[in-house]
Amino acid sequence: MRLHEIHHRSKTQVNVKHLMFVLHLLTIVPVLHPEVSQEYPVYPVVAAPGSNITLSCFFPRSETDLLFNLIVVWVHGDDMVHSYYKATDNMEEQSPAYKGRSQLSPDQLAVGNASLRLTGVRASDHGMYTCDVANEQGRSKKQIFLAVAAAYREPELAIQTTCDSIILTFLSTLGFPQPTVLWRTKTGSDITNRSNTTMVLKEGGKHYEVVSEMVLKQSDPHNWTVTFEMRLELLNQTFSRSVSLRPLPDCCGTSVEPRNRLFLLTGLLPLPRVCSKTRLLQGRF
Ligand SMILES: *[C@@H]1O[C@H](CO)[C@@H](O)[C@H](O)[C@H]1NC(C)=O
Ligand SMILES: *[C@@H]1O[C@H](CO)[C@@H](O)[C@H](O)[C@H]1NC(C)=O
Ligand SMILES: *[C@@H]1O[C@H](CO)[C@@H](O)[C@H](O)[C@H]1NC(C)=O
Ligand SMILES: *[C@@H]1O[C@H](CO)[C@@H](O)[C@H](O)[C@H]1NC(C)=O
Ligand SMILES: *[C@@H]1O[C@H](CO)[C@@H](O)[C@H](O)[C@H]1NC(C)=O
Ligand SMILES: *[C@@H]1O[C@H](CO)[C@@H](O)[C@H](O)[C@H]1NC(C)=O
């Protein structure tokens, strides 16, 4: 799902038991005004796994409002993230998923700021949050979409040559979640299923290391131009790298040499000429 496609999604389902509890409290709030709803637009917030984030929520108040009559409920799907009433945090109904990770600031609540601080962001925190506030001014709701994502680093290209093939390997790290990977020929045909891509979670689930390998046969020089594409839809991040290789004559011995490894950052052009005893290549990106 793209961030920009997140508009008005269905209202977050509030734990029924909890909602009844909130409504019960509402009836004892001295002056009950009609519901003030502020559900649109939905602001997307991006946080990397393991990071800390503050989800903003402000509510109307008057100088004379008592903190004691304020109720704040933060929910994510069916999970109760944090609730506050009678001037204190109510952790009893908090989902275990958020235990010890959520925080409201009492000083800020007193001035109309019910922003939630969430520490140690996890992949499962991804999704829509609702900040539901009731006070002497009435009730207000705000929705915030928290996208748990991290941008990938520029892919690095490594080229290995053997006597009969060229192996292109792209490496990209520090991103989250998994990107889509696509390989194309010069003419645009999808040859992704001839590649070998591995995506491994690193640092206890904080990010992926993506390694994608394509083997080109030396005997098939007409398709030595290939394009590697990597896309992280959530952040609209796209890398597209074309690699053109062409053999140069008279550098081909007959013996089989060990693989010749070259590490290059993409974007460096032109690729320096490489002459192993068996192959000489020139590449362009
Ligand atoms: C997140 O907050 C916690 C507690 O406030 C702190 O110990 C930790 O260093 C913070 N982490 C990051 C990535 O800032
Ligand atoms: C609202 O409260 C949060 C902490 O709960 C704080 O980080 C933020 O700066 C406050 N915003 C304003 C505008 O005061
Ligand atoms: C790759 O995909 C094409 C069509 O999408 C299919 O015809 C071909 O058999 C697949 N090759 C492999 C090795 O999976
Ligand atoms: C893909 O790469 C992994 C790790 O290098 C290897 O074990 C596996 O056999 C490869 N698969 C294919 C289809 O090449
Ligand atoms: C090379 O081209 C042939 C046909 O033109 C195609 O079937 C093959 O998949 C291509 N291989 C690569 C690595 O592009
Ligand atoms: C995604 O990125 C491309 C190029 O970086 C940009 O042209 C396009 O407007 C972006 N789309 C959205 C919806 O942000």
Polypeptide structure, described:
Its main location: membrane. It holds the Pfam family V-set. It comes from Conger conger (Conger eel). GO terms for molecular function: signaling receptor binding. The structure is a single chain. The chain is mainly beta and 285 residues long. It has helices at 16-28, 106-109; strands at 35-37, 43-47, 53-55, 71-76, 79-85, 88-89, 102-103, 116-118, 127-135, 138-148, 156-161, 165-175, 180-185, 196-202, 207-217, 225-232, 237-247, 260-265, 274-275, 280-284. It has 2 helices and 20 strands. The chain is rod-shaped. Residues 4-40 and 249-285 have low confidence and may be disordered. The structure holds 2-acetamido-2-deoxy-beta-D-glucopyranose (6 copies). One 2-acetamido-2-deoxy-beta-D-glucopyranose binds next to loops.
Which structural traits does this protein have?
about 45% strand, Immunoglobulin-like, 2 domains, about 280 residues, binds 2-acetamido-2-deoxy-beta-D-glucopyranose, mainly beta
